[in-house]
Design goal:
The protein is an alpha/beta fold and 395 residues long. It is 38% helix and 15% strand. The protein has twelve helices and 15 strands. A seven-stranded mixed sheet has the order 2-8-7-6-5-3-4, with helices on both faces. A four-stranded antiparallel sheet has the order 11-12-15-14. Strands 1-13 form a two-stranded parallel sheet. A hairpin with a 2-residue loop joins strand 9 and strand 10. Helix 3 runs parallel beside helix 9. The longest helix is centred in the C-terminal third of the chain and has 27 residues. The termini are far apart. The chain binds pyridoxal-5'-phosphate. The site of pyridoxal-5'-phosphate has 13 residues, from helix 4.
């Protein structure tokens, strides 16, 4: 009766353990202020373009003519058109019919597993955003790991000796902050095309990419429409972590085993999902207006400036780190060969800085730590002042 695959999940104590060690420190040192540099949650208020649209849609719902009940399963046309236009502005062709509006990338990267048989083999990077692994463990699938490490710049590449049916790619990546160049992503598209694998590409952090060599969508790569699904989110682009809205792209021509995946996902969504509320979809559409793009763009730019400041500060201490330029995350090698949790304790107890131990994201994360740029500027600045004073750098 019970899905025994759940017993194969390794309990992830990462954030609970961070919270419990931080709470213990707070209780013992009530006069000290902790600087949170670990969280991956947006901290700025929603921008006016979004709040205006949310208010307007909410009022509309209170009128006889403006009230809406169940919406279209794939999302309202106005939002899918706006998202399609967002891609088109960058020269990428994604049609409104390819787009499925969702309540975020977490749900969709997890729920997409409904499309695959239990015998499908999946490939996942290590370290990685834990959802890809845990959702496949729940379904009892065989998982193989592609090592992300210093040798490959924390960006695993195809290995001819390894085959998988489904391959998860995240770029820019959580937790390492690294991103595939167009050329490297093209190698994955070529590999998937040749081997019949399906790429599941998580672009939740695409808004942080400013380097022109880095793709902001897998569909910038020729051939990707025949081998890739893409997940996107407004969480880290427009502060929708609490509002909840994202989208998934499944090109209409994409098939596997003779089955059309766009039609299959529509069938899945119309059976198990009743859509994102009209009000939220109106707020989401406002992100793609000129005002919304300017306002959310300024917010993302501010977090990017934080990331650069953190990256420069850590580097000035002679500590190796990745990310920080096209990503809100800085992934640093713990100094003096320290383990992730020892380094966490050192920063907490000596400098009152909370980081995220890399070991929580997979075995290759041991000996690393993630710093997030989502904290307000003054918190990040003070944290880096303390960090550089301890480790001999400057900021
Ligand atoms: N994908 C990655 C790589 C993430 O890091 C996160 C959140 O931290 C998500 C997806 C979740 O996005 P959403 O808030 O849209 O569910």
């Amino acid at each position: 009766m019970i899905n025994r695959n759940f017993s194969n999940l390794v309990e992830n104590y990462l954030f609970a353990e961070i919270e419990s060690r931080s709470a213990a420190y707070r209780a013992a040192n009530p006069d000290k202020t902790l600087l949170k540099m670990g969280i991956g949650d947006w901290t700025a208020p929603l921008c006016p373009a979004v709040t205006d649209a949310l208010r307007k849609a909410s009022s509309e719902m209170g009128t006889p003519d403006g009230f809406r009940g169940y919406g279209p399963y794939q999302g309202y046309g106005f939002l899918r058109e706006a998202i399609s236009g967002y891609y088109a502005a960058r020269g990428t062709q994604v049609a409104p019919d390819d787009i499925f509006v969702s309540d975020g990338a977490k749900s969709d990267t997890g729920n997409i597993t409904d499309l695959f048989s239990e015998s499908a083999t999946v490939m996942i990077a290590d370290p990685v955003y834990p959802v890809y692994n845990d959702t496949n463990v729940m379904s009892g699938r065989k998982i193989i790991f592609a090592d992300a490490n210093e040798e490959n710049g924390f960006l695993p590449m195809p290995d001819e000796s390894t085959r998988a049916d489904v391959i998860y790619l995240c770029t820019p990546n959580n937790p390492c902050g690294t991103a595939y160049t167009r050329d490297k992503l093209a190698q994955w598209v070529e590999f998937a095309t040749r081997t019949g694998a399906l790429l599941l590409c998580d672009f939740a952090y695409e808004a942080y990419v400013t380097d022109p060599d880095l793709p902001r969508s897998v569909y910038e790569i020729p051939g990707a429409r025949d081998c890739a699904i893409e997940f996107c989110s407004l969480s880290k682009t427009a502060g929708f972590t609490g509002v909840r809205c994202g989208w998934t792209v499944i090109p209409k021509e994409l098939t596997r085993d003779g089955v059309n995946l766009n039609a299959m996902w529509l069938r899945r969504q119309s059976t198990k999902f009743n859509g994102v509320s009209y009000i939220v979809q109106r707020g989401a559409a406002a992100v793609f207006t000129p005002a919304g793009q300017a306002q959310t763009g300024a917010q993302v730019a501010a977090f990017k400036a934080n990331a650069k400041m953190i990256y420069d500060a850590v580097t000035s201490c002679g500590i190796h780190c990745e990310g920080g330029r096209n990503s809100p995350y800085v992934w640093l090698k713990c100094p003096d060969g320290m383990g992730s949790w020892d380094f966490f304790d050192l920063l907490l107890n000596e400098e009152q800085i909370i980081c995220t131990p890399g070991a929580g994201f997979g075995k290759n994360g041991e000996g690393y730590a993630r710093l997030s740029a989502f904290s307000p500027r003054e918190v990040s600045t003070e944290a880096m002042r303390r960090f550089t004073a301890r480790f001999g750098g400057h900021c």
